[in-house]
Amino acid sequence: MLSTRRGTTSSPLKSERSCVLSRGGMVCASVPAAAEAGRSILARGGNAIDAALATSAALCVVEPMSTGIGGDAFALFWSAREGGLVGLNGSGRAPARATLEAYRSRGLERIEPRGILSATVPGAVHAWQTLSERYGSLPLCDVLEPAIRLAEEGFPVTELVAHYWWGLERSGVFRNDAARRALSPEGRTPRAGEWFRSPDLAGTLRRIADKGAAGFYTGPVADAIVETSRELGGYFEPEDLASHESTWVDPIETDYRGTRVVELPPNGQGLAALIGLNVLECFDPEEAQPGSALEWHRRIEATKLAFADRNAYIADPEHADVPTPALLDKSYAKRRAALVGERALPGPDPGLASDTVYLCTADAEGNLVSFIQSLFTGFGSGVCCGDTGVVLQSRGAGFRLDPDHPSALAPRKRPFHTIIPGMLMRGDEPWMAFGIMGGDVQPQAHLAFASNVIDHGLNPQEALDRARFRVEGGASVRVETPDAPASEGGTIGQQLRERGHDVGDPGAMMADVFGGGQAIQRLDNGVLAGGSDRRKDGLALGL
């Protein structure tokens, strides 16, 4: 049955929200209109894949700073029909003319996320079609209807979406007039509760519905992308788009205290979450009770060690040798765990922050989908392509301009990727789909979520709502609740500082500095329990 602490009065693990329960299907997303789009497809007879794609497309409309059809997507899927896990890498590659020499000749030492040079080929639309053709039960054109309607007729902008939209516009994110026309058409961004329409995006979505992925990667939309790139000094050519394909991949996993934790392989950073869990497993969970500074300390240190390996090794495996089996070896984890003492270790340099959407879906047939899609940084490159409504992602910022690094820029290479969908398995059965967005937050939040569920028996909502940390390089770490009491006495912040951590304030500008997630658990009796992060605008909807 469902574990819950809602009836308690003082548990530090209690959530202020209950899980949503259903048996016919479930959709969890960061904006209610998108969750409803997915639920409506389930109600029409669609399966969990159909619902995930409908939700993803709707999020491109209603949360445009975080995702879009100019971005990438990854999926981890339990197929009831096949009785197994399936992984899809829907990330795009660098243009064929994007060479190290071309970038370094411009005097660049790194690729900044703003501007056309950070744009890679968008992979999301191809991923939608690939998943739909193999596993969907409804035509993709039907699945895209809710998103098209939202774009054409409009939608009320939710509170946090309005906040992020406004903050990003003020930071100067929009890099061309097309972006400003599409995303601040009245010279300002929409306010919370204001009705907003995206007619250009609606037209492109309708073209995809009519012609499939070919309607995006060839023809007028592709022409607009190439023309915009040329105008701004980028490297896109028609063949870069026309030749793009998604890749089916074998998921990777580790056993954490008897539960299989599953992620997608590189070029994503799911490997880092598994490395961190292997390190954490080396410590007795009974020694670090919930609410103790010791629990926080060990999770933080495991994350630092995982990030060091992530930064050194993760790259596109088609272009670099990524030693995944060696990094997941339990004996390696023991050697790494031996480095963790009572004092804070120096941590590696952090990566970039990002804006992303994560969603999960389930249906009555037993399918379970963990799906994530992103433009990387808020509004991606900030470049919009003509009158298509397509904002190009900034994933190229994940490349290095060091020729000796595994993730060095190269033509037709996929960059290091932050977005990672997760899954928990008990034996050979799927137990929980989960994911938490937010750049560097993702692997450390995956580690904490899995530990919350497995070590402490939390349900999806409780595990999502627990306070988080964010490692930021060196001894610096942000703690969401530094003033919370620690079981050792004093506060979490004080206790961590005594261990050598440089504890920073949570910060106030962007409310999701600690990410935002969704999760669905399958109970033994077939009931689905959905949770949606309190840090976002969204919810869980059952059918």
Strand content: 15-25%
Largest sheet: 7 strands, antiparallel
Can you give the helix content as a percent range? 25-40%
Average pLDDT over all residues:
96
Low-pLDDT stretches: none
> Could you say which overall geometry the principal axes of the C-alpha atoms support?
globular
Radius of gyration, CA atoms, in whole angstroms:
22 Å
What's the total helix number? 19
Number of strands: 19
Cα distance, first to last residue? 19 Å
Counting helices, strands and paired strands, the structural category is alpha+beta
Q: Name the strands of the widest sheet in spatial order.
A: 1-18-17-13-12-9-8
Description:
With 543 residues, this protein is an alpha+beta fold. 34% of the residues lie in helices and 18% in strands. Strand 14 (469-471) and strand 15 (476-479) form a beta hairpin. It starts with 19 loop residues before the first strand and ends with a strand. The model has no long low-confidence stretch (mean pLDDT 96).
Topology diagram in text:
Blueprint: E1 20-22, E2 25-29, H1 32-43, H2 48-62, E3 72-79, E4 84-90, H3 100-104, H4 124-135, H5 140-143, H6 145-153, E5 155-156, H7 159-170, H8 177-183, E6 195-196, H9 199-211, H10 214-217, H11 220-232, H12 238-242, E7 247-249, E8 252-256, E9 259-263, H13 270-281, H14 293-313, H15 324-327, H16 330-337, E10 355-363, E11 368-376, E12 422-426, E13 429-437, H17 441-456, H18 460-465, E14 469-471, E15 476-479, H19 492-498, E16 502-504, E17 516-522, E18 528-532, E19 539-542
Parallel strand pairs: 15-16
Antiparallel strand pairs: 1-18, 2-10, 2-19, 3-4, 3-11, 4-7, 5-6, 8-9, 9-12, 10-11, 12-13, 13-17, 14-15, 17-18
Helix pairs in contact: 1-2, 2-6, 6-9, 13-14, 13-16, 13-17, 14-19
